[in-house]
Amino acid sequence: MTAPATNHLVRNCAIGGLILAEIYMIFTVAGPRMKDPSIPLDALLTRLAVLAVFFGPFGLAAGTGVGLLINALRKKN
Predict the structure, then answer these.
(1) For the chain, first and last CA: distance in Å?
(2) Are 60 and 18 in contact (CB under 8 A)?
(3) Distance from chain centroid for Cα 53
């Protein structure tokens, strides 16, 4: 059995949200600091790994919500 095309839309939006959240996380973590511009590489990698766990699910949730909204608006017309 194949899934309807609307499931593909929601899934694609969720994946897009995940990718955008991870890119935003990289800019947030690796961005310049006001007080201490130099940060050790191992601390930076640890921050990236830990925050990927937190940013990823929220990006998936936001992307899924956007996909469901688009899906509802498409069916309404």
Answers:
(1) 27
(2) yes
(3) 11
